[in-house]
Amino acid sequence: MNLFDTHAHFTGGEEDISPLLARAREAGVARILAVGGSEELNKGADDAFRLSKSCGSSYPEVFKAVGLDRDQIGLNPSSLDFTGADAIGEIGLDYHYSAETREAQMELMARQLELSEKLDLPVVIHTREADEDTLSLLREIPTRGIIHSFTGEPGFCKKLLDLGYYISLSGIVTFRAADNVRETARVIPLDRLLVETDTPYLAPVPKRGQPNEPAFVAHTARFLADFLGVDFEVFISQTTSNALNVLRLSS
Ligand SMILES: [Zn+2]
After folding, report:
1. Could you point out which of 137, 154, 206, 229 has its C-alpha 20 to 30 Å from the C-alpha of 219?
2. Residue pLDDT, tens place only, 39-83
3. How far is the CA of 90 from the centre of ligand 1 (A)?
């Protein structure tokens, strides 16, 4: 198999990350985008990136995203080291947990959208209960990238698709109560859909409640292929080629 987990966070050190990478490879995960967002997560993404470089084909190929998420307001994204990065992220807005910092979150996201243009790197975006502000920033500062662990309404999804973004679905889509996410899944064209784990969060059924890990992306992919009525192998090759396209990687 040739799965691409487009969103995983890593922490700890080599001894924590190595077994996750080894199990992912055994489960058919060929590539992972290791995603930052804070000092700790940026370091973890870099650790996974370096480990995969040193271990050859026994691990998936790891790419990395470096960025500042909505909890890092007050920090300057221009001071980050993007050496070796294939994306900026995660960045974005969350008004579910921190609506009181709305203006500062928007400012931090805007600076990183500008960086994405300047460095010619795609962004990885988190958006929760912030549909209008997300759209207005993405219209004001056009760039390209991924909307990750998408749980919004179909109408919001279509507007993001119109702006050229790829939509990534996490294990949430497998949860029994997530009819709204499954409804949205139906409006995403197969050539703009991605799958992710969001490790260590949101483990899919049948692993729900456990710490998530990249190996489990296979469950989400299997579920979505069945749900959308697409052959599993076709689903994997299409979503992997989508990820390669949005990150401008060669296959
Ligand atoms: Zn994340």
Report:
1. 154
2. 999 999 999 999 999 987 889 999 999 999 999 999 999 999 999
3. 6
